[in-house]
Amino acid sequence: MSCTRRPGSGCPRQTSCQEGRHIVRNARVQPTASSVAIQAQVAPSLGAPVSSRTIRRRLAEGQLVSRHPLRVLSLMPTHRRLRVEWCRAQGNWTTVEWNQRHIAPTAGVMVWGATAYNTRSPLVLFRGTMTAQRYVHEILQPHVLPLMQRLPGAIFQQDNARPHTARLSQDCLRIVTNLPWPARSPDLSPIKHIWDHLGRRVGHPTSLNELEARLQQLWERNVSKHHTELV
């Protein structure tokens, strides 16, 4: 025995097939519009008022589902060109040259660390806003310069955060070979993946002190191996 739906049963559709296609076309033209916005746009051309829920059903029938847009940096044509030029300039680097690159962007305002092939700096934890003065006195002088002195031929890399590009910081780094960094391109640095690696494994600490302790443990145990894999 089989069961089938009796013709004419259930709530009648509020839109025709043609109106459904019209709704889908509007959504494809404006992919970031919400169902409420699409409802307002197509309402004058529909035979009867429809709810935003009906709009969503028609979109689902057209294989369109809602998504939250990713928040990304806005790249102007100049930024895109500089990113491509930077990647091409380093595209033929050998493994030895990449191993000499010393990577050190900041991870927010409370955590800083630097990695190089098979070595790393201490993980520096601090509170408050990072300024150029703090960056020089708490990061560059006590950590970066000594580390670079232990790595002959190393190249220092950092992103374009304001404390990094300040004249005070640049003056401090005059004795170090620096790798220029394209604008709006923090994602090009392997250390960003290390911060993601730590964030995924830090768990759910109940206090700031516990968070700092866990970060230090993860930094000591896992960072060198993970960075070697990224490079």
Automatic annotation (TrEMBL):
<feature type="domain" description="Transposase Tc1-like">
    <location>
        <begin position="21"/>
        <end position="89"/>
    </location>
</feature>
<dbReference type="Pfam" id="PF01498">
    <property type="entry name" value="HTH_Tnp_Tc3_2"/>
</dbReference>
<dbReference type="InterPro" id="IPR002492">
    <property type="entry name" value="Transposase_Tc1-like"/>
</dbReference>
<dbReference type="GO" id="GO:0006313">
    <property type="term" value="P:DNA transposition"/>
</dbReference>
<dbReference type="InterPro" id="IPR036397">
    <property type="entry name" value="RNaseH_sf"/>
</dbReference>
<dbReference type="GO" id="GO:0015074">
    <property type="term" value="P:DNA integration"/>
</dbReference>
<dbReference type="GO" id="GO:0003677">
    <property type="term" value="F:DNA binding"/>
</dbReference>
<protein>
    <submittedName>
        <fullName>Transposable element Tcb2 transposase</fullName>
    </submittedName>
</protein>
<dbReference type="InterPro" id="IPR052338">
    <property type="entry name" value="Transposase_5"/>
</dbReference>
